[in-house]
Design goal:
By secondary structure, this protein is α/β, with parallel strands linked by helices. It has two domains: 216 residues, Rossmann fold; 126 residues, Rossmann fold (3-Layer(aba) Sandwich). It is built from 14 helices and 16 strands. The strands form four sheets. A seven-stranded mixed β-sheet has the order 5-4-6-7-9-8-14, with helices on both faces. Strands 11-13-12-15-16 form a five-stranded mixed β-sheet, with helices on both faces. Strand 8, helix 8 and strand 9 form a beta-alpha-beta unit. It catalyses: N(6)-[(R)-lipoyl]-L-lysyl-[protein] + 3-methyl-2-oxobutanoate + H(+) = N(6)-[(R)-S(8)-2-methylpropanoyldihydrolipoyl]-L-lysyl-[protein] + CO2. Its EC number is 1.2.4.4. Heterotetramer of alpha and beta chains.
Length: 359
């Protein structure tokens, strides 16, 4: 991933955000680009957490090292403003962090739990999939932990290796009862995180740590929410549909631009919410283009791209003009020095675009 490519993508997103209408508690508010400050994704997350704590006294932020700002500094300033009874450190025990969050949410609070790296969410897997996801169902809707939001930085970072670069979203997409959300940019991260915190369901919110400092765009200062489970067509085209989420969108955008130079018109969709995902938007696009390419950093086998592919083949079989393409991470542990070979790069995506269109 090139730094300049990511920054250019952020500026293009800022331009599109200025034309987009964002929902808020006061209704639809037109975003005026000239009135909004530029923030990176880390600062946008911080702003969303400030708003969540400020607007709801039942909200709490907790996790490893969050009281001084966390390793990525996303929670800096929160403890100073809201006090250490609402923003506090926990022991280094992910199972305990999520278990505590389930109990806190079950008592009617807004529990915002941070897992320091998505790679270390696995000790909490049982709590998430066997407790949080099933809490409402097993009680016949008498009780729930819908106020639980689990934040976790995920994906490549350039030097993380196999313990700090994983993309585990597909594991949680298999479990009914939780939602999985991944933003692509600062303005999206703020609006989607606020929506997650206020949603009546437990949610896993993966933050692309590669973009914490690199993605910069103008972000509305006010309190606003973006709808969950609604994909967004961020680039319209006629020849092939591309679907992705998170940091991969910037790479896919670069591939779309290069494909355009070769006369190929690409439609690019940001899924944003993986579960429940917006099948209708993707289906409508594929019915128009007749081709589909999916890209994500997670390994290709069992990745969420496989679910998208299967669903679209079922819905659009007679309209497809080529096999569905998947450009994803490799079926290996995430490497360190070989990271450039592992990741789904612009050139890999561009080659797949050409191959699919010329099938």
């Amino acid at each position: 991933m090139a730094t300049t490519s990511t920054q250019r993508f952020g500026r293009r997103l800022a331009s599109s955000v200025s034309r987009r209408r964002l929902s808020s508690s006061a209704g639809e508010i037109a975003v005026q680009r000239s009135q909004n400050p530029s923030l990176n994704l880390c600062s946008a997350i911080n702003q969303a957490l400030h708003i969540a704590l400020d607007t709801d006294p039942r909200s709490y932020v907790f996790g490893e090292d969050v009281s001084f700002g966390g390793v990525f500094r996303c929670t800096v300033g929160l403890a100073d403003r809201f006090g250490k009874s609402r923003v506090f450190n926990t022991p280094l025990c992910e199972q305990g962090i999520v278990g505590f969050g389930i109990g806190l949410a079950a008592m009617g609070n807004r529990a915002i739990a941070e897992i320091q790296f998505a790679d270390y969410i696995y000790p909490a897997f049982d709590q998430i999939v066997n407790e949080a996801a099933k809490f409402r169902y097993r009680s016949g809707n008498q009780f729930n932990c819908g106020g639980l939001t689990i934040r976790a930085p995920y994906g490549a970072v350039g030097h993380g290796g196999h313990y700090h670069s994983q993309s585990p979203e597909a594991f949680f997409c298999h479990v009914p009862g939780i939602k999985v959300v991944i933003p692509r940019s600062p303005s999206q991260a703020k609006g989607l995180l606020i929506s997650c915190i206020r949603d009546p369901n437990p949610i896993v919110f993966f933050e692309p740590k590669w973009l914490y400092r690199l993605a910069v765009e103008e972000v509305p200062e006010h309190d606003y929410m973006l709808p969950l489970s609604e994909a967004e067509v961020i680039r319209e085209g006629t020849d092939i549909t591309l679907v992705g989420w998170g940091a991969q969108l910037s790479i896919m955008e670069e591939a779309c631009l290069d494909a355009e130079n070769d006369g190929i018109s690409c439609e690019l969709i940001d899924l944003k919410t993986l579960i429940p995902w917006d099948k209708e938007t993707v289906e409508a696009s594929v019915r128009k283009t007749g081709r589909l390419l999916i890209s994500h950093e997670a390994p290709v086998t069992g990745g969420f791209g496989a679910e998208i592919s299967a669903s679209i083949v079922e819905r659009c079989f007679l309209r497809l003009e080529a096999p569905v393409a998947r450009i994803c991470g490799l079926d290996t542990p995430f490497p360190l020095v070989f990271e450039p070979f592992y990741l789904p790069t612009k050139n890999k995506i561009l080659d797949a675009i050409k191959s699919t269109v010329n099938y």
